[in-house]
Design brief:
16 strands, single chain, 10-stranded mixed beta sheet, 4-stranded antiparallel beta sheet, alpha+beta
């Protein structure tokens, strides 16, 4: 991977390492370049050390060493439903039934497996960096970073609340209010399963905001936005208030109408990791949820 910037008048005289820090090259990323034979920092096409004082008009380039791939990850070549792609990010629409990453007893069939196959097809030498995971039975938008720089930047923006997802869900029964929030700590339910979560006093803080889109005889159609990102948060919170998701048998949801969690990640907005452009993506509900409505 190669990144390049032009020094502005306002940046004249600062150290190269300061310039790179201003452009979101962390100490860890910089070390991965400085202490690797295949990494290189250039000024106007010539290798330079980080104590150089940059001048207006200088062209700063940084060559990152190749990323180490996970050799145990099985490459698969099923086409992915790609919504958007550039040199830094990839946004895809994940189908229900596909895990985000492989598990010990399910080493294939995940998004990560198919990303590895796709990268091999297009000749991209990169590790797999999934920024926003989805549960196996949840459908919708996922964000992938195509290199370590993009991954570091997007992880930072996610922590700062500059990267947001919205979901639509069908929850059993009818809520008392048209909109509101659920604020309850979430921890592991280790007595039952290493996967299952529960509301627990010693759990991590979690808050889920919701707004009703439509109301039906046996379920409500909701728009949901998370303020925290705990494992199974939406599923746990709505089960906790007595309205588990349709199809979510792990958390007590009825499965007569649907054989998977009625949850879809339909909206994603972010600040691009390199251009810093605001980007927004939105997709419709999949056919199975539309059919229920």
């Amino acid at each position: 991977m190669f990144l390049e910037w032009r020094v502005s008048e306002q940046e004249t005289g600062i150290l190269l390492r300061t310039f790179l820090r201003h452009h979101h090259i962390s100490k860890q990323l910089l070390a991965s370049v400085k202490y690797n034979e295949e990494g290189k920092i250039e000024v106007n096409g010539e290798e330079q050390n980080v104590l150089y004082k940059v001048q207006a008009g200088d062209k700063i380039g940084i060559h990152f060493p190749p990323e180490k791939e996970n050799t145990r990850l099985i490459a698969e070549f099923k086409p992915l439903n790609i919504v958007y792609e550039d040199d830094f990010i990839l946004v895809l629409n994940k189908e229900a039934g596909m895990a985000s990453i492989p598990a010990q007893y399910h080493p294939s069939g995940s998004v990560a497996n198919h990303l590895k196959g796709y990268y091999e097809t297009i000749g991209l030498d990169s590790a797999i960096h999934i920024v926003t995971r989805l549960d196996r039975e949840t459908s919708g938008l996922m964000l992938i970073a195509k290199n370590r720089f993009a991954h570091a930047r997007l992880s930072w923006t996610l922590q700062k609340g500059l990267l947001k997802r919205r979901y639509q869900a069908l929850v059993s029964g009818n809520l008392a209010e048209d909109e509101g929030f659920i604020e309850a700590p979430i921890g592991r339910n280790s007595d039952i399963s290493i996967m299952e979560r529960m509301v627990a006093p010693d759990g991590k803080y979690a808050k889920t905001n919701y707004k009703r889109i439509g109301s039906y005889t046996s379920f409500d159609h909701l728009q949901i936005e998370l303020e925290t990102g705990r494992t199974h948060q939406i599923r746990v919170h709505f089960s906790y208030i007595g309205h588990p998701l349709i199809g979510d048998t792990m958390y007590g949801g009825p499965n007569e109408l649907l054989a998977r969690n009625a949850l879809h990640s339909y909206h994603l907005h972010l600040v691009h990791p390199f251009t810093e452009e605001y980007m927004e993506f939105e997709i419709p509900l999949p056919e199975d949820l539309q059919a229920l409505l």
